[in-house]
Amino acid sequence: MKKYIPLILRVIVAAILIQTLRFKFSAHPDSIYIFEKVGLEPYGRIGIGIIELIAGILLLIPKTVWIGATLTLGVIGGAIMMHLTQLGIEVNNDRGLLFTTATITFILSAIILYVYKKDIPFIKKA
Description:
- The protein has 126 residues and is mainly α.
- Helix content is 71%, strand content 0%.
- The protein has six helices and no strands.
- It has helices at residues 5-19, 21-25, 29-37, 43-60, 65-87, 97-115.
- Helix 1 (5-19) runs antiparallel to helix 4 and helix 4 runs antiparallel to helix 5 (65-87).
- The longest helix has 23 residues, at 65-87.
- It is elongated.
- The two termini are 26 Å apart.
- It is a multi-pass membrane protein.
- It is found in: Membrane.
């Protein structure tokens, strides 16, 4: 069971990243609102969506897990910062769901990166 936990975490994070793409790529009004509020509409919405798609795919490929986790930490870290500085915890009466999801995704990605740290080529092996 222990060897399956990292795989389960990878699938969860990839699913979260990929599931949210339909909102970004279909120009859902909530997505447009968020990116307008932070001054990144439309190019930031599409660009971040592409980065999240790439990160989600990389998380599912064993040799690139660490890259996917690092990308996820970067993009979701940015989302968390936007919530804390410009958007607020609650966006459009979502009761903090987006912020909570981003925080969970960030934590799980950090765990994934820690578990796969041995795969990072420029980190010294102890």
